[in-house]
Amino acid sequence: MRSRENGFSLIEVLVALVILVVGLIGVFNLHLVAKRGSFESFQQSQASYFAQDIINRMKLNRTQLIAYTGNYNGSLAHPNTACEVTVGASVVCSVSQTLAWDLYKWEQQMLGFSEVNADSLNVGGLDSPSACVSALANGDVTVVITWRGIRELSDGASNNLDSFVRNCGTASDRRRVYSVKTVII
Questions:
Q1: Which residues are listed as membrane-spanning (predicted)?
Q2: Looking at the predicted structure, is the pLDDT value of residue 95 above 90?
């Protein structure tokens, strides 16, 4: 009489474990790709917000429109007058003081100075941002924001037909670009 054993052999268990491990590695890699994609998407949303922010600041200070033209990478000094527009603010600024404050605050936001972690490191804003603004007297405005992405793809501006966009920021296979052209009346 033959005895029958119930259960799994050692080989069957090892094959099942190998299949499980391969599946878990795939899920882990998918998670990493999703996190990177989410971060890249967040950075682009931030760039869009910053571009609209400076355009709105320019609309509110239309007499100084041409003076907003320039390249910005975090090198502006703190202005003498803080022209905060908050409830209960009592500071009255001239248009040139407002211009200096707008550009300074805009740069600080892009660099993430408003969000600091426990180690006093800036965690908000864009990674290595540069911004270029071109404003003409007729109201034509171009805002270009570049930053460094987390993975190497291709230079986001190298194939752009507009030389203003191509020349903003530092060329790199991680450079990402967001640009807006508009008219301020």
A1: 13-34
A2: yes
Structure tokens, 81: 């007058």
Angle at 125 between CA 42 and CA 178, to 5 degrees: 60
Q: Are 106 and 57 in contact (CB under 8 A)?
A: yes
What mean pLDDT do residues 153-168 have?
86
Alpha-carbon distance values, 96 to 57, 76, 92, 103, 139 (Å) = 13, 15, 12, 11, 18
Is residue 83 classed as helix, strand or coil in its secondary structure? coil
Structure tokens at 18: 């190998």
Q: How big is the CA angle at 60 (ends 69 and 76), to the nearest 5 degrees?
A: 40
CA distance 38 to 31: 10
Q: Is the dihedral of CA 87, 92, 94, 100 positive or negative?
A: negative
| Polymer length in residues for the chain | 185
| pLDDT score of 2 | 66
Q: For residue 141, give the 3-state DSSP assignment.
A: strand
High-pLDDT (> 90) share of the chain, %: 60
Q: How far apart are CA 98 and CA 100, in angstroms?
A: 6
Residue 167 region by backbone torsions, left for phi larger than 0, else alpha for psi between -120 and 50, else beta: alpha
Other Cβ atoms within 10 Å of 71 Cβ, number:
14
Distance, CA of 110 to CA of 180 (rounded, Å): 16
Residue 173 DSSP code: T
In angstroms, the Cα distances linking 129 to 46, 60, 148, 152 are: 11, 24, 7, 16
